[in-house]
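Table S2 (continued). Query chain:
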Amino acid sequence: MRVARLHSFSAAARDLGVAPSVITKRITQLEKSLGVQLIVRSTRGLALTAAGDRYLPRFVRLMAEFDEIFAANETEQVRLEGHLRIKSPTTITTESLGCLFADFQVEHPGISLEIVLVDRSVNPLEEGFDLAIGALPVSYPNVIDVPLCPYELVTCCAPAYLVGKSPPQHPTDLVDYECLTTVLFRTTWVFESSRGALSVEVHSRMHSSDSRVLREAALRGLGIAILPRFLADEPLAKGELIPLLNDFPVANFWVRALVPRMRMSKPAVRELVAFLKARMQVRS
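Corresponding output:
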């Protein structure tokens, strides 16, 4: 599992604190026991064979069961301990979640955190995370979906962008405007209307995984953006940005924690999820 994630025997060895020869020997033993080749060397490094791809999800489930069995003993501990590996989006983490993670560790000094900033959807079960945080509406088998708080969005632009233009009155008007896009919608923007969800294909002048980049572009009059409310509120209050399409709100999203089902038996995971849910709902 570690070699599949890191694509390197030596990197897996460093991660596990053993010699590379130990990793090579264990992989060889595993392949011999199964009677198939799991990993091949290529010009790009290491890659899974077709058999390796088939076996990997089963190995992940087996390891999750193994952790669940031994996690039962942890429930007897008064002091929570352990290491949690977390996937979290860049913008939300640097603007808000980073403080919450630090607060959590102040309360639970026996827990160490590895926070990986990733803006794509991640299956935490397959990629070795204890939990993954995100707002994309994606679910995975054997992964529990825990809503943390609403992710409010607003369509807006700078007044300067509308000089010589009329503001869009309907989402379909956006085809005639420059738009600034992010991973949440890309070029398909979804709005709510009296007739249900309304999807519009827009032209992207700038695309970024970090909404702060798009906010700066919008402030400079480069186009129309859909921004998280927590990033847009201040410039909206100052008149640096103006809201658009008030009769067509952006489709609802939630910030969610995706937790492998087996990991929810881990006390540290349960405590972190409960902590985030309580603190984020208060903030929202």
